Amino acid sequence: MFRYIFKKTRSSSLKKENNHKLQGVGQGNVCNVPLSSDLCKNLETIKGILHDSSDVTVHEFNFGHDRRSRGALVFINSLADKNEIQKNILQPLMFGSLLLSNDADMDFNSIESIRKNLVPIADTLIVALLSDLVGNLLAGAVILLIDGSKEALAVRVGKGEPRAVDEPATEAVVRGPREGFIEDVNVNIALIRRKIKVPDLCVEKLVIGEKSKTDVYIIYFKSVAAPELVEEIRRRLNSIKIDAVLESGYIEQFIEDNHWSIFPTISNTEKPDKVVAKMLEGRAAILVDGTPFALVAPMVFIESFQSVEDYYSRLFLASVMRFVRILSYIISALGPAIYVALTVFHQELIPTMLLISIAEGRERVPFPAILEASLMLFVFDILREAGVRLPKPVGQTVGIVGAIVLGEASVQAGLISPIMVIVVSTTAIASFAVPAQTDSGTILRYIYLALAGIAGGFGVIMGLLVTLVHLASLRSFGTPYLWPVAPLNLSGLKDTFIRMPLWTMSKRLYNEKGSDSG
Q1: Is residue 175 part of a domain?
Q2: What is the spatial distance between Cα 118 and Cα 178, in angstroms, rounded to a whole number?
Q3: Domain residue limits at 395
Q4: Tell me: the pLDDT tens digits for 57-67?
Q5: What's the pTM?
């Protein structure tokens, strides 16, 4: 009885151990397992690693001048193009090999010989380790296995065409290029190379994600970007330990300098011309496969108010619009707080006629000014989220009709004052003028509003001082966040609050510390 129980327990433990080892191979934990020269053994191992998934095709065939050589193709149906497989792999192997008159000139057991003579595809890779084979298979490659060879050939045969290059919805411009990044990182790199045709452009590839194996690229100009900046970006990327990278936002949160700040220290964009312009200033771009948003580091605060369109139009309009963006950000962050501070604590600063008008509007309102403002801002945020998440036609209707109906009904019911509708509406519109700081503006709006309700103008000023100190303490990959204002750089001020003529801006942000170099 005890012997029977011991045998059962031993058998169960051995089975679990074997399954654990097999899962370890499938997860890439066993990196140095070589391929076998036995085709059947290799196929059984691959099927075990992939758990006999129904979307994995294994096609065995005979080829060679006398049909004595055995081979197999392994690919994932949803990732590989079957027409390309049939045309450029199977036909040359099964029928092209028949045209070879002398077998001595062709070794059908050699992967290298087959790659050179029978596979008319340039994007191929010879692999000898099981982990490399599985990694290429899951990335969409077709695996060619030959009986008698300890190597396999990974052939890149992509399926379908990527999304067409189109104008990015988040960064529309009146004048300038209309093209934007897409989800295919190779197309995105091509868009950058089309704008800069120099060998100085460096592209470094990293693979991040234990399970996703996402391709991440660092792109920079060798003679412009500081080596310390590139090395620091490379170090931070290599230190990322995560199962999957599904969007560049994952990378941004891992490598940013201050994780607890509400201000972004790494910029993101969908426009290739914007990425190239920043790289020409000495920065580096990070492209992630599967997302149209590229990251650029380092970032300074003032660039949030700059637009690529500023450099395509005349300097007068660009300078005026830059002032408009700065003023819009101030209104979006301080508008409701200033209104509450004036109406509750500092009525003497309001002109008499305006004060009487505000008092008449608030005569029927049962709530204090701070609660009234908070409720209105909260309703606005609800409408904004609903408009974004709903389908586009419905979202636009909800945003417009909801704001008008709710605002008008609330005023008629005496729940809010007409002046509050104007303040919140102006704040809402101004918040979209600076997309890069929309998140920080939303959070600051509530913070300043609370301070204004507690201490009036004094609370708002204290909040501004704390914000300024926090901004001055931030750095982005070694670059002061408030550069070129703090530390002061006269050359950098040419493109800060106003835009000087292009021919006067002959110096660039050469390294990550914010110093200039001609």
Answers
A1: no
A2: 42
A3: 311-473
A4: 999 998 877 77
A5: 0.85
